[in-house]
Write a structure and sequence with these properties.
This protein is about 20% helix and about 30% strand. The strands form 10 sheets. The protein has an 8-stranded mixed sheet. Strands 4, 25, 26, 27, 32 and 33 form a 6-stranded antiparallel sheet that branches. A 5-stranded mixed sheet has the order 21-19-18-15-23, with helices on one face. The chain has 2 domains: about 425 residues, no CATH class; about 110 residues, Sandwich (Immunoglobulin-like).
Length: about 675
């Protein structure tokens, strides 16, 4: 059956116990007519919190992850809407592992009813944090293997779609005359290639040669920033939004952590946002999406993985982004071309393009099970054929080349059916001024990204598009793309390239063809999608049930306590409280803040640290569910204030903010 966001959803009807199949169909809404020409840029932006309650499995570290117990840095979706010429787009930037075809289609259906944005104009990108919830993707394989627990959660996916769609409608409704500029700068020293051996096998790369232009270094240092300002009556502008595209894995936080967090991206976006506000006196909606990051990791100091290092790296990148944001001020223009195209490549019907054919059967390599370099699977990563670099010792003409197929090519299909893998690949190209943004559902290595960019640049030569940005994990999650040379060595990136060594040229050909069509489209919109998307997913239910009646008294459990800092963890003040079950609280709404008052007596006010409010909207406070109370009377929670600024003439207290009908509550003072 076909359904949309505004009506009774079969996803909601699937709530219940046990494991079932979630079978549903999404048909795109076709635009009745081309949009009227808009001679100047219009823009709007909105932000929404997508932090779920505790209990959702976390995606990114597979079986090594833990279900979420609370949050340290919140998860958000930022939406930037742009309208110019005959095109209308929304750029969604989520603190999630990746985009999702289910989310993209759900949001697009809602936008078709309330805005002028077509399906081809809906871009769902992600920061690729490894500490956000999973279970919303469009394939059984990644709903099963990306997280520590398996299954597609219909209610959580519905909730995510509603939150994102609501923000997108708000951004479109609030659009106004604007100016935009998109530029790039290099950021060095904060990222590293985690798979350098395979990277060096590419013929373009030579680590023995000094390259004065640094074209072939192991990382992609380009930080791309789209700055959008609204116009004032006096001819000036005010910051509206900024979107960063950068290439680095969201793996600064250990896979042992149990809280949801946006990893280094939370600190990157927070630092950029704070600096824009400091410079201009007004806040902008600041978000980010991945670039070509598949073999790029944050440059963490040995043994220091955690929030301190993620904050160091993220804030440093954010500072570079802020400086570039200011440099783009002189380039802002209202003459900002927009065009968009979306093609859904159905591998069942179209496995070939320009002489490149992908195998019908994807295959999981043994190297994938060993994990990536900075988060290896204990013991297993030392044993062949799982050990990185263990390729087949004999020559093979099979489409999977040197890959050790986990469980052999004959047994793997019995455990991993074909229908569970990504079989429809969304390829998207959005023109933003003189730049083509290419969205692909894969994690793209540095050199794969360079080759795809070169193919697209060649296809649009002479069109007014001067540069190309490739963004990974857009609109779905479909694994990795390594070059054929990288693939041959069978490290993690090659083992996770499901469709073999020809995946990169296959995607380059599709991206180039679509970009060429977008560049010459008279309507500014190219739509080549399936008549309907059918999903058949194993369903499980992790989102906590709502609490209908709150009978538990909300109260603090004693006074705050301080714990000294260590080499890898900040000092922290902590307190605990008793409350209803997690389903009785709105985790996407404010929950806790810190207040201060003069020691000599006086009114309480919001505490500030380095000029910034101390609450759970930044990176100072962590909130955790500690479990059901020992006596069965409610549930216990803890809040931690990391790296607190105390002393002087102030005393402080924790405050539980009124939330979901629960009353505001003031804790014991401390100093």
């Amino acid at each position: 059956m076909t359904w949309d966001l505004a009506t009774d959803s079969p996803l909601l009807r699937l709530r219940g116990r046990g494991t079932k199949r979630a079978r549903f169909t999404l048909a795109p809404v076709r635009s009745a007519a081309p949009l009227p020409d808009e001679p100047r840029l219009l823009a709007g932006a909105a932000e929404v919190d997508i932090t779920p309650p505790p209990g959702m499995p976390k995606a990114g570290y597979s079986a090594n992850a833990h279900s979420g117990t609370g949050f340290r840095t919140r998860l958000r979706a930022r939406v930037l809407h742009l309208r110019s010429g005959t095109a209308s787009v929304v750029l969604v930037q989520c603190d999630l592992l990746g985009g999702s075809a289910v989310l993209q289609h759900l949001v697009a259906r809602h936008l078709a009813e309330h805005t002028d944005v077509p399906l081809a104009g809906v871009f769902v990108g992600a920061t690729h944090t490894h500490a956000g919830p999973g279970q919303f993707l469009g394939t059984d394989f990644y709903n099963r293997h990306a997280s520590n627990k398996a299954g597609f959660d219909p209610a959580f996916t519905q909730w995510l779609a509603e939150r994102i769609a609501g923000a997108a409608v708000e951004a479109c409704a609030n659009r106004q005359p604007a100016r935009a500029a998109l530029g790039s700068t290099d950021v060095w020293g904060l990222t590293r290639n985690r798979s350098y051996g395979p990277h060096l096998t590419n013929p373009e790369v030579d680590d023995k040669r000094t390259d004065p232009q640094r074209k072939y270094v192991g990382v992609n240092p380009r930080l791309h920033l789209l700055r959008v300002d609204t116009e004032r009556p006096d001819g000036g502008t005010d910051p509206l939004a900024a979107m960063v595209v950068f290439s680095v894995h969201g793996t600064g936080i250990s896979m042992k952590a149990t809280e949801y967090n946006a990893d280094l991206w939370g600190y990157l976006c927070g630092e950029l946002s704070h600096r824009i506000e400091d410079a201009h006196g007004s806040r902008a909606i600041v978000g980010a999406v991945e670039g070509t990051h598949a073999d790029v990791a944050p440059a963490m100091r040995p043994g220091m993985a955690g929030h301190l290092e993620a904050q160091r790296v993220g804030r440093a990148i954010g500072a570079e982004a802020a400086a570039h944001h200011e440099r783009l001020g002189d380039a802002l223009t209202s003459d900002f071309a927009i065009a968009t195209g979306l093609r859904e490549v159905d591998l069942e019907r179209s496995p070939s393009i320009d002489g490149v054919t992908l195998p019908r059967r994807p295959a999981v390599g043994a190297a994938l099970v060993a994990g990536a370099h900075e988060n290896l699977t204990p013991v297993l990563h030392r044993i062949p054929p799982f050990r990185p670099g263990t390729r087949k010792p004999w020559t093979t003409t099979h489409a999977q080349g040197e890959k050790w197929v986990l469980g052999t090519r004959w047994l793997q299909p019995l455990v991993l059916p074909l229908r569970g893998f990504p079989r429809v690949l969304p390829v998207q190209v959005i023109r933003l001024g003189d730049v083509a943004l290419v969205g692909l559902p894969f994690e793209v290595t540095v050199e794969s990204g360079r080759r795809i960019s070169a193919a697209v640049a060649h296809a649009v030569d002479g069109s007014g598009i001067d540069s190309v940005i490739v963004s990974s994990v857009a609109n779905e999650y479909s694994g990795y793309v390594a070059t054929a040379e990288e693939y041959e060595l069978q490290h993690y990136e090659g083992g996770h390239t499901l469709y073999g060594p020809d995946t990169q040229p296959f995607l380059a050909a599709h991206a180039a063809r679509l970009a060429g069509e977008v560049a010459v489209s008279a309507s500014g919109v190219v739509t080549d999608v399936l008549s309907e998307r059918s999903f058949d997913l194993t369903a499980r239910h992790f989102l906590p049930e709502p609490v209908l009646a709150a009978t538990v008294e909300r109260r603090f459990l004693g006074g705050p306590a301080f714990t000294d800092p260590t080499r890898t963890v900040d000092g922290v003040w902590e307190t605990r409280w008793r409350d209803v079950a997690p389903g009785g609280l709105d985790w996407h709404e404010p929950m806790v803040c810190v207040e201060r008052s003069p020691l000599a007596g006086g009114e309480w006010e919001l505490a500030r640290r380095q000029g910034r409010v101390v609450d759970d909207q930044g990176w100072d406070l962590e909130v955790r569910h500690l479990g059901e109370a020992a006596d069965g009377d409610g549930h216990d929670y803890g809040v931690r204030w990391y790296d607190p600024t105390l002393g002087g003439e102030w005393r402080h207290r924790f405050v539980l903010v009124a939330n979901h009908g629960r009353p505001e509550l003031f804790g014991h003072p401390f100093d």
